[in-house]
Amino acid sequence: MILVLPLSVIVFSYTKILVTVKKMAKCQVSNRQSRRAEKKVTIMVVVMIVAFMVAWSPYAILALYSAFGNSAYVTPLVATLPAMFAKSSTAYNPVIYFLLHDKLRVAPQCRPGTRTAVSVVIGDGKGPCAGQTATGKARAGPQRLQA
């Protein structure tokens, strides 16, 4: 029950997303690009589910072993590592999205009055933020963030 309920919710949710993506792909003209995007979403969903299982399985196995096995072998270090690994799984989803989604790897579009850390780091004078300052005014070239 430790792993079954959350895994069921995740599989159900991602299955609904895949079904919606496939329905939307059928409504559009089927071309190479839409099939490739559909394949990327499917890969991302599978990776997300596998990452959840990899992160939480050691914790679930240890919990079952502690409950029904000999808990004398479960030292504090042995109990802590799977728990920390499982709870760090919340950081995996953004990393997976970043690695598997092309649009998340480009600098965000500039909006007047805002400046993001990503646009400052990537601000190489190219892309949607080129030639703009934080207030939306034109600038002469790439600028560095002043401390």
Shape: elongated
- Cα Rg: 22 Å
Number of helices: 5
| Largest sheet, strands/sense/barrel | none
User: Can you tell me the residue ranges where pLDDT is under 50 for at least 5 consecutive residues?
Assistant: 117-127, 129-139
- The number of distinct β-strands equals 0
Distance between the termini: 51 Å
How would you sum up this structure in a few lines?
The chain has helices at 4-27, 32-68, 76-87, 92-100, 117-122. It is mostly helical and 147 residues long. Helix 1 (4-27) packs antiparallel against helix 2 and helix 2 packs antiparallel against helix 3.
What's the helix and strand layout?
Layout: H1 4-27, H2 32-68, H3 76-87, H4 92-100, H5 117-122
What does this structure look like?
- With 147 residues, the protein is mainly alpha-helical.
- 60% of the residues lie in helices and 0% in strands.
- It is built from five helices and no strands.
- The protein has helices spanning 4-27, 32-68, 76-87, 92-100, 117-122.
- α1 packs antiparallel against α2.
- The longest helix has 37 residues, at 32-68.
- It starts with a helix and ends in a 25-residue tail after the last helix.
- Residues 117-127 and 129-139 have low confidence and may be disordered.
- One of its GO terms (cellular component) is membrane.
- InterPro entries: GPCR_opsins, GPCR_Rhodpsn, GPCR_Rhodpsn_7TM, Retinal_BS.
